[in-house]
Write the structure tokens for this entry.
Amino acid sequence: MENKIALITGGSRGLGKNAALRLAEKGADIILTYRTGETEAKAVVSEIEQMGRKAAALYLDVAEVPTFDGFLEQVAGQLKEKWGRSTFDFLINNAGHGAHGMIGQTSEETFGQLFNVQFKGAYFLTQKALPLIADGGRIVNLSTGLTRFAMPGYSAYAAMKGAMEIVTKYLAKELGSRGITANLVAPGAIDNDFNKQAFDAYPQVKEVIASNTALGRVGVSEDIGGVVAFLCSEDARWVNAQRIEASGGMFL
């Protein structure tokens, strides 16, 4: 991955951070985004630079589509200043948040927030970034195991990820002429900040998940970043329009 550049949304913590570090370990340079974790984002940049790679952190709220043009102008500026390039190679749509609520209790506001971040934001950021993605590049979208199996309370979140799974197939089809692949990584339950609130409120959930996972434990962020890195590697050049579930074998 020498001389390759990845743009990772939500790269300051969790799965995004781990993906950034794994890609950097394999020789890629990184532009990561953050919304609230500026200090954490700068720490990730420092860690990547200590590996001998280049990195930058930029603010982005993926729910705010009108800001995307300005954000991508910043990306173009970083590409020119740090790399002497006008394109990057890998787009990883990772940023997002979850929400738990039964269908009968899900508010329109919660639904709208999930829609704006998990689907609309990722859709239009990808659209607007297309001129900056190099031919032969890669798009990796993050989905969830919840599009395959149903756990009560996650209907809205899973529905947005399901929509991204459809869009990913269309990206693969429409961008094939440019040699750009588009794939999804679908994690199972991950023990990190993303699920902290649910796990803290219902400690028994971890045990239930572990007992229903073939490998007998709940996942961690480090289980996912390498899968993202693989999809960006030359070894994955013929993998396209695929959903790769990394759940340790949940609910088989």
Notes: The mean pLDDT is 95. The longest helix spans residues 108-129. The beta strands are 5-8, 29-34, 55-59, 88-93, 133-142, 181-187, 243-246. The radius of gyration is 17 Å.
